[in-house]
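re: the backbone from monday

yeah here it is again, tokenized this time
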């Protein structure tokens, strides 16, 4: 029979101190005299006590853990990023703690505060708000490496990894315009999110460049969920004179729009054309296949993780700002609108 692992009680008995004193000495909190602390540590070493090594490592920042706080881990886009960050971290002998802000800035602040209290060595964050950034600046001021992913924040000077959201949205809308569409609907998420702002800018700029006035009635806001996108799409296309085409700003909204059109008996692309930002697995399993703005999601997590690992290794150069191009993948969900 293997020997019983040493307990805190065993350490305290050997050192001839109370369990509370032994706990303080082993966990480096509260006051313990130098002589007493030395006795406790020697007793722990003699007994092979390991019960609080994790807590000690966390408090001292010696445990190789990084944090990753993303918008919504249920979104396939963020799930892929988390997977790739974890892969790079593991290669560099680090572990990863993942949190989901659910696109709520207060939850993001709470998560970062809790993780920072564990002395996590660095963070990759997809910030919920493009303006509310004091909590992120505090990380930088405390000397904690920070990489922003998918989104940037004004006045925060740190490494970042994004895609050309404005350019990608503009490509999509200009393609629809080139196919004869003038009443182009936009299904977007909350504009406090950087990506939403940029994709809205791309939509507006494409219309303006082609002499088409902006009609606010053609823009609807949805949460980034399939269920919410279904409801918003049904409301948009139940109005008089609905759009002839729809541009959705992420893959979950695209899927919601598809289900909404199916429930309403609206045929794609004969009665409405559809383009979505971000490719997704089902886009090539539908009939017709869905035209999308594809972003290199497989590169984003790797790039962000490698930037963070360089900072953890001591790199002191100015922040790097990586921006990846998007690609319009034309499939079968857009039809040419006959001139009237």
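seq for it, each position gets an aa:
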């Amino acid at each position: 029979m293997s020997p019983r692992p040493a307990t805190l009680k065993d350490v305290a008995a050997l050192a001839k101190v109370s369990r509370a004193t032994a706990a303080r000495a082993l966990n480096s909190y509260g006051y313990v005299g130098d002589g007493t602390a030395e006795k406790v540590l020697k007793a722990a070493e003699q007994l092979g006590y390991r019960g609080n090594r994790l807590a000690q490592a966390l408090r001292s920042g010696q445990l190789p853990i990084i944090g990753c706080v993303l918008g919504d881990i249920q979104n396939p886009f963020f799930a892929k990023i988390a997977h790739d960050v974890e892969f790079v971290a593991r290669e560099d002998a680090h572990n990863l703690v993942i949190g989901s802000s659910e696109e709520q800035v207060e939850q993001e602040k709470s998560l970062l505060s809790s993780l920072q209290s564990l002395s996590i060595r660095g963070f990759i964050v997809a910030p919920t708000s493009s303006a509310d950034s004091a909590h992120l600046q505090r990380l930088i001021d405390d000397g904690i490496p920070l990489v922003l992913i998918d989104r940037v924040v004004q006045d925060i000077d740190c490494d970042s990894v994004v895609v050309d959201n404005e350019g990608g949205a503009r490509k999509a809308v200009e393609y629809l315009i080139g196919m004869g569409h003038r009443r182009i609907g936009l299904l977007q998420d909350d504009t406090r999110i950087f990506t939403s702002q940029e994709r809205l800018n791309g939509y507006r700029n494409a219309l303006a460049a082609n002499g088409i006035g902006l009609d606010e009635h053609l823009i609807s806001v949805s949460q980034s969920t399939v269920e919410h996108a279904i409801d918003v799409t049904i409301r948009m296309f139940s109005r008089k004179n609905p759009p002839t085409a729809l541009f959705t700003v992420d893959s979950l909204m695209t899927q919601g729009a598809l289900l909404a059109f199916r429930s309403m008996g609206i045929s794609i692309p004969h009665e409405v054309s559809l383009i979505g930002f971000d490719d997704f697995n089902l886009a090539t399993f539908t009939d017709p296949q869905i035209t999308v703005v594809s972003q290199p999601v497989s590169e984003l997590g790797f790039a962000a993780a490698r930037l963070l690992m360089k900072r953890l290794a001591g790199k002191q150069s100015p922040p790097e700002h990586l921006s990846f191009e998007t690609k319009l993948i034309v499939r079968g969900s857009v039809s040419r609108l006959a001139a009237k």
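Residues 8-60 form a domain with the 434 Repressor (Amino-terminal Domain) fold (CATH 1.10.260.40). The two ends are 88 Å apart (CA to CA).
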